[in-house]
Structure formats: structure tokens, C-alpha cells
């Protein structure tokens, strides 16, 4: 009993690598090796690199908008109509500023996801599951080893990002202290340049940190989809199918093949018999065939059915024990008669054609 329990335990232990089918099923459920840090890093890097190119246009647009606000809107009388016009114009101007940045972020995020998992559409991943709101399951997730790893990662990222930001500000402290002596435009571009430098530095740092995170996510994913020996056996059995179903399918295929074979017997020129144990039906069309073809063959009960079908459709039957055995042993349905039996078969066909008065 104890030995059986131990064997059962080991068979359920997940020690085997996932099979291709298991990987495919996991992918359909949205369970793939993916690091969110890679997405975050690439989005930040793309956005801040774009801002370096877009900063001049962005700054001019914001300055023009602020000038328009202070030169035009302050002189307007506040009514429901003017307030609507102001809000509409501000929303439009803000959209013009933000839409290119959002578009770059969306493209970068999509590219980062495709780099990791390729093109994937998994609607099952967003289905509602009661286990997601189960407090016991949530408690287990919070205090799991995965949660501890995520906490350590977050603390490391916050520390390194804080050090990087502090270092950039510290090295540019003199320039920041002189902002009060500069005009608004120069001060704006100074802050924008410093912000872009900090953002790009943080993005590069996160991208560097995302490499080991992606490796860990891949390792953790492989661990999550591992299978037990019993799982592998069950999957193999399922793919092969139930033996009873396979047997029924095989029997049905045999019945269909037999039915097709019996439909060819009435078209045969001759049936060579044993006389009771073997029956082989032959057909020969001089202008279409190089040699006679075996259209049906059978032994015992099937031989009896072939003989009955031949008798019913007035197909000639010739008794030749050695030839019947040889044709059954060396020829398959649909094949030409073996070369070493050509002469014997030709003699039989000649005899049949003489009986029908149509000797070629």
C-alpha cells in the first residue's frame, strides 16, 4: 500500500518538460513567457527618443498656445458659450500635442510584446474566473515566492532609478540654480532637455534590468507548465484516441473498403476460385490496362460472398487452386497480376473469352 502511494506521488510530480501540445494549449490561454519590464523599458525609450526630435515643435506649440490664452481668452467675457469654445480649443490643442506621443508609445508597446510572444490573440485570458477574486487564492499569491521575487525586483528598480535621477540632477545642479536668471523659453527648453535626459537614462537602465527579468520569466513559465509522467501518458493516450473508438473506426473503414470491393465484382471478367476457400476477381480492358487487375479477393466467408456476387451478376468462375492461392498471396486489390502469373491468367481469360465468344 505504501509503495503504491509512493509510486502515485512520483507519477503526479511535475518533472517532465511540457509537450508541444501543452505549450500550444497554454499559449491559447495567454500563458506565455513575457516580461512587463521589457515593455515598460522600450515604451519609455521610444517616447523619450521621440521627444528629443519632437521637443522643438512641442515647445513652440505650447508657447503659442499659452500666448493665445493670455492674449485672447483673458479678454473674453466668461459665458456658457465662450467657456465651451475655450474648452473645445484647449482639448483640440492638447490632443495635437499628446496624440503623437501616445501613438509612439502604442507602437513601441505592441512591438515589445510581439518581440517576446509574437502575434497572439487569447480571448480566454480575459474571461472572468472566480478564482481571481477568491481571497484565499489572493492571499496565496501575495505571499508566494513569485510575489517575493517581484517585491525584490521593484525595490531594486526603485533604488537604481533613484540613484540615477539624483546623479543627473546633481551634475546639472548649477544650471538649475541659474533658471531664475533665464527667460521663460530658455528655462522651458532647459527643463525639457533635463527631463529627456533623465527619462532616456531611466529607460536604458530598465531595459538593462529587463534582460535578467525576461530570463527569469521564461524559466518560471517553463516551471509552471511542467507536466507529470501521468499527464504525459494521458495526453499521449488522448491524442491516440480511445482504443475502442479506434477499433470501431478501423472496423468502419474495413467495412467501407469491403463494400467498395464488392461493388467491383459485377464488373470483373472472371473469378478464380479454390473452389471454396479462395476467390479472386480479375478485370482486364485491353485498351486501358497493361495487364489484368485484381479488383477483389477474399478467403472463406468473403470468398463465398464474392462467388455469390459473381453468380448473381453472371460473372464467369474458373476453378484453379494453385492460381487462386498464388494470386491471393502475392497480389493486392488494385494491383496488376504478378508477372510470373501472366501466362496462367492469360490462359484463364482466353478460356473465359471463348465461352463468351469475344476472344480478342
UniProtKB/TrEMBL annotation:
It is a multi-pass membrane protein. SUPFAM superfamilies: EscU C-terminal domain-like. The chain crosses the membrane at residues 38-57, 97-122, 151-171, 191-216. The keyword Transport applies. InterPro entries: FlhB, T3SS_substrate_exporter, T3SS_substrate_exporter_C. Keywords: Bacterial flagellum biogenesis, Bacterial flagellum protein export, Cell membrane, Cell projection, Cilium, Flagellum, Membrane, Protein transport, Transmembrane, Transmembrane helix, Transport. Residues 228-245 have a biased composition (Basic and acidic residues). It is found in: Cell membrane. It comes from the Bacteria. Residues 228-250 are annotated as: Disordered. Its main location: membrane. Pfam families: Bac_export_2. Required for formation of the rod structure in the basal body of the flagellar apparatus. Together with FliI and FliH, may constitute the export apparatus of flagellin. Belongs to the type III secretion exporter family. This is Flagellar biosynthetic protein FlhB. It comes from Thalassorhabdus alkalitolerans.
